[in-house]
Amino acid sequence: MTAGLLERYRRLLADGKISPDPAQALAVEKLQILTNRLALYVAPTKTDFFSFFTRKRGEVPKGLYVYGAVGRGKTMLMDLFYQEAQVEKKRRAHFHEFMADVHAALTVARRAAKDDPIVSVAKSIAAEARLLCLDELFVTDIADATIVSRLFATLFDAGTVVVFTSNAHPMQLYKNGRNRDQFVPFIHLIENTMEVLQLESAQDYRLQHLTHGALYFTPADSAAKVAMDELWKKLTFGEPCAPEAIPVLGRELHVPRACLGAARFTFAELFQQPTAASDYLALVRHYHTIFVDGIPVLTPADRNAARRFITFIDTLYDARTGFVASADAQPDDLYKAGDGSELFERTASRLIEMRSPDYFTKAAANRETAEESE
Predict the structure, then answer these.
(1) Helix, strand or coil for residue 131?
(2) Residues in the chain with pLDDT < 70?
(3) What CA–CA distance (Å, rounded) separates 213 from 330?
(4) 203 domain residue, yes or no
(5) Which of 144, 174, 198 is the last residue of a domain?
(6) Per-residue 3-state assignment (H helix, E strand, C coil) for 226-294
(7) Could you tell me the residue range of the domain that residue 248 belongs to?
(8) Cα torsion for 311, 153, 124, 281, to the nearest 10°?
(9) Are strands 194-198 and 216-217 parallel, antiparallel or unpaired?
């Protein structure tokens, strides 16, 4: 067995990179126990894979559902766990990214006239991943809500171990959502097959790194446009920009301005159109930095645009994609009331962090990696 996760956490404490936190220490202990169990766990092989329905639940290590308020270190702990988990077949993804891939696979399975596309897709995922680490679980889309119960029940029965992070207790997921009765079995599945752990930290770790930078300009007036244009010019070395079209699930997403790995939209161009998580995933795969001009103060009537913007920021944040924007208000004041406004607390937090030098340094590292692969 290995104590690698605990050792790395203690080293971070000793180096002063994080502060002592009893809630985090407890979560690390739980994750270390799971790491040890995974090292001893033998998942179904290809030859006995289809016997998974007869497997005893006790043979499979119990997964973890870690939830807590914004900025408490959930994603950091998941990353440490994922890096230390001695599992040959594993995957770590943002929940949005994972579900976008699931829907794409379901489309293929339905065209192939599979008897049960959800079970077929789940089996394929289980064959490729003994361990799934899915960050930022929350569900707002009925298309996700209606399939997650059967999808994850099949994954669990097939022997895949899952670790979730979320801002909400399982009972709060998809609250007041349409056809929630179809989602409730997923909540019961989490409670019955996973250990639910609240990260009750009193510290907000964002505050150790936040600083104002010239990456978020307010108000979105002519001066902001001049500043955005100047930053765009520096980033693209003055090269001319041009429209591009990038493929998304058999169609194309129009990018009005693009150059040297950077893309630029107005808020209306990207969020007052029927865009979705799959579009944002395609953007972060193609561009290292995205500019958005003219983010307005959103009202209840803008709920669809607000929902898209929330998903967009989550996608950029998880990919460490650079983000530059002009807006009519500071992040905390962009969406105060309306459907989904409670989720905007996390979005505002991420907007603040994304304009810090630390975040942009990591985004620059992504850019260098992308350039080396070209």
Answers:
(1) strand
(2) 1-3, 17, 42-58, 70-71, 114, 201-213, 237, 357-358, 360-374
(3) 13
(4) no
(5) 198
(6) HHHHHHHHHHCCCCCCEEEEEEECCEEEEEEEEECCEEEEEHHHHHCCCCCHHHHHHHHHHCCEEEEEE
(7) 209-373
(8) 0
(9) unpaired
pLDDT for 61 equals 92
Which CA distances in Å does 180 have to 84, 143, 189, 287?
36, 11, 15, 36
Residue listed under structure tokens 């001893």: 40
Please check whether residues 251 and 155 belong to one and the same domain.
no
The three-state secondary structure class of 346 is helix
105 with 231, same domain: the answer is no
How many Å apart are CA 206 and CA 204, to the nearest integer? Answer: 5
pTM: 0.61
Please give the backbone phi and psi of residue 273, each rounded to the nearest 5 degrees, phi first.
Answer: -120, 160
Residue 204 lies in a domain: no
DSSP E strand stretches across the chain: 63-67, 90-94, 131-135, 161-166, 194-198, 216-217, 242-248, 251-259, 262-266, 289-295, 322-327
Residues 6+ apart with CB under 8 A from 142: 177, 178, 179
Q: Are residues 105 and 248 in the same domain?
A: no
- CA distances for 35 relative to 86, 92, 145, 248, angstroms: 7, 15, 29, 36
How many Å apart are CA 198 and CA 62, to the nearest integer?
16
Distance CA 144, CA 173 (A): 12
Which two tokens mark 144?
A: 């996700």
Structure tokens that stand for 12 in this block: 């971070």
Does residue 145 belong to any structural domain of this protein? yes
> Do 187 and 238 belong to one domain?
no
**Does residue 24 sit in helix, strand or coil?**
helix
Q: How far is CA 253 from CA 60, 194, 272, 282, in A?
A: 42, 38, 14, 9
Tally of structural domains, the chain: 2
Q: Is 317 in contact with 288 (CB distance < 8 Å)? A: no
For residue 54, the model assigns a pLDDT of: 44
